[in-house]
Amino acid sequence: MKYSPRIRLVSLFMLVLIFLLIIGQTAAINRKQGLAELQQRSQTDLNRYRLSLSQTLERYRNTPELLATHGDLIQVLQQPANLERRHSASLYLHRVNRILEASDVYLMNPDGTTIASSNESGPRSFLGRNFAFRPYFKMAMQGRSGAYSAVGTTSGKRGYYFSYPVQLVDSIIGVVVVKIDLNDIEEDWNDPMLDILVVDDDDVVFISTRKDWKFRLLKPLSQGDMQRIVGSLRYGSHPLKALGIIERKARGDGSALVTLLDAVQLDNPALDGAEPREYLLQDTYLEGYGLRLVSLAQTAGIRQSVWESVVLVASGYVALVLLGLFLLTRRRAQQERAEFKQQRTQALEENESRVRAIIDNTRAGLITMDRQGRIESFNPTAETLFGYQGAQIRGSYFSCLLSQPDRPLCWRHLVADDGQRPHELMLEATGVRQGGSVFPIELVIGQMQMGDQLRFIATVHDITERKESERQLKRAHGQLESRVKSRTADLTETNARLLTEIERHDRTRNELIQTAKLAVLGQLAAGINHELNQPLTAIRAYADNARAFMALGKQQTVETNLIEISALTERMAKIIHPLKEYARNSSGQPEPVCLKALRDGAMSILYGQLHKKGAEIEWPPQLERYYVLGDMVRLEQVLVNLIRNALQAMETQPEKQLQVRIELQEQQLLLALRDVGPGIPDADLDRVFEPFYTTKKSGQGLGLGLSISHRIIESLNGQLSAANHPQGGAVFTLTLPLCDAPQQSDLIK
Predict the structure, then answer these.
(1) What average pLDDT does the segment 285-289 reach?
(2) Is residue 218 assigned to a domain?
(3) Element (H, E) at 707
């Protein structure tokens, strides 16, 4: 297609116009985005500087109020002529100033004269100086806390003043002032692309990261405001000149674009070569301090970014135009190539149609697969055999058409290395139709090369008729099923006998548990005998004495002896009662068990042994707060068994101590008992809970205690474990389900 010169001229004009529009839009969008990013970044920095200044000022804000309550300062104001008290107060303020790291701390009388100062001995001492003209003094004398920024009349340094009135009853007798130096804050603010200003209520720059901007005005002041500032000596002899803002454009987000000259050029108008700079201005107020933070971020980087973007877009546009021209020149060649390709594709499609007709009309099922065994095509015969449509089965693995036993052999053939795989695999298998029914097939899997890709083709024949001749094998299979049923009946009977044996085993285990408890009671008999002999001897003595006193007619003494006898019998009942509770069979029903009651029961049973062996048990405090879900009697039996084992393990130790610790883990409670014995051999840790396993001396046990305890805890949905402590001794840990403390109504039931 040819174009006339007029069309070419119009096209060139349109290209230039589009180029100018794209460049303009690119510049505008990039500047807008650059300003937005600069605004967000500088706002973040401004907030950070605001927080830094606020934290510094807040550190000293309440200090004057605290100092105003100090007794020494109040006494100095009451006795201003006492030089010793004034000197002592100055020393105190000096210590306070050193601790606070402030600039100065001083005390003024109601006339504004300084009578005590932290810099009393310094060359610029405030003593005797009058600061009644300062606004912070006037605010304090009005009963308010003062906050004021100014240049010191004595030091000539910038500072921030906090003041507070010193009151006695209802009258103000003086003012305490704390001055802080702001030079350190200014030195910490250092950002080459961002200038930070702190201005007062009159827009006078008090703090600046640019030295030549200090004591400049953001806006011109009226004559009255200027006289007021000069009269208060707020900024000393520093001249207050306006900052060279040439242009100011407000933006919708509260910020502004300002163009200003450097202060050097303002002070020297004759200088040439200095150009005004554009800044993004943002500000924020520091509530309660009369200060405003202003940030001035340079936009020079944005101009550079816009220029780079414009150059990049212009280059891209030119490249696209050149590419378009190149593509236009190739279009004719591509059209001719497309026509040739279309003719070739049509020939290939006709050839493929002939091949497809041959495949579709064959009587065998033909299935093609990719290298991973996924189905790619399914001829009509295969659809008839397996009941799937080609589109439905395409993409599925070929193994889904085979029964489970036949799949491994086919997969081994498909995934084998090319050099080890036979060219063809032939086998008899069982096919699986869509409905799940199976039928015998003869399967041949071959491989074919299509270009540089390897493919597989499976040929499937239905051999159901051939398998009809194998009915004799099915008859044999029926006989085998009969034998299986007979064997199943025998196994059922054997299983019933096994269940009976299990029940008998459970009864035997429960009898062993009770026997173990009675064995413990038998071993405790000696200790209980000693405990009962003492009250029996005392009862006999009290009874003999009562007979003698009765004969003498001393009824009061007889009654006293009878009361003692009653108390001794009650004590004997308390000694025997836990043993009866320990000996009885448990209910077997889980219920809330208090650890304090569990401890008291075990200690009542083991009291005699512990006293005889000189052993001590360290229990954790507040056991009454913890409840576990279990059986009181069975848990008591386990605890008694563990403590007795610990006592036997510590027989050779000079000090016999047993530590009990509690740990809570989610809905479980861990009760750990640690002794100071020799511990358990590492090789035996896995066998301690086996029946009849023991390391005790002959005659001290059968090795069933830990095995029974382990079964008891498992039956209560818990766990019992054994380990060695790193510092020596064995540790047995009971893990039990944790439960809430029962209500009073539950306890009554």
Answers:
(1) 80
(2) no
(3) helix 705-715
Residue 418 CB neighbours (<10 A): 7
- pLDDT score for 500: 76
Same-domain pairing of 447 and 590: no
Q: Of the segments 141-145, 246-250, 611-615, which one has the largest average pLDDT value?
A: 141-145
Number of domains in the chain: 2
- Same domain, yes or no, for 606 and 732? yes
Closest to 60 measured CA to CA, from 4, 28, 16, 103: 103
Alpha carbons 55 and 47: distance in angstroms, whole number: 12
- The pLDDT assigned to 177 comes to 94
Cα–Cα–Cα angle for 520, 523, 527, rounded to 5 degrees: 120
Name the token pair of 534. Answer: 């003492």
Separation between Cα atoms, residue 234 and residue 199, nearest integer Å: 13
Q: How much is the average pLDDT of 674-678?
A: 91
- Residues 396/398/400/401 CA torsion (nearest 10 deg): 130
Q: Tell me: the pLDDT tens digits for 520-533?
A: 555 555 445 545 65
What is the C-alpha R_g of the chain? 51
Note the pTM of the prediction, 2 decimals: 0.40
User: Please, how many CA atoms are within 13 Å of residue 75, restricted to the half-sphere of its CB?
Assistant: 12
DSSP string across 174-230:
EEEEEEEE-HHHHHH---TTEEEEEE-TT-BEEEESSGGGTTEESSPPPHHHHHHHH
Between 334 and 674, the higher pLDDT residue: 674
Instruction: Decide: 130 and 121 in contact? Cβ < 8 Å.
Output: no
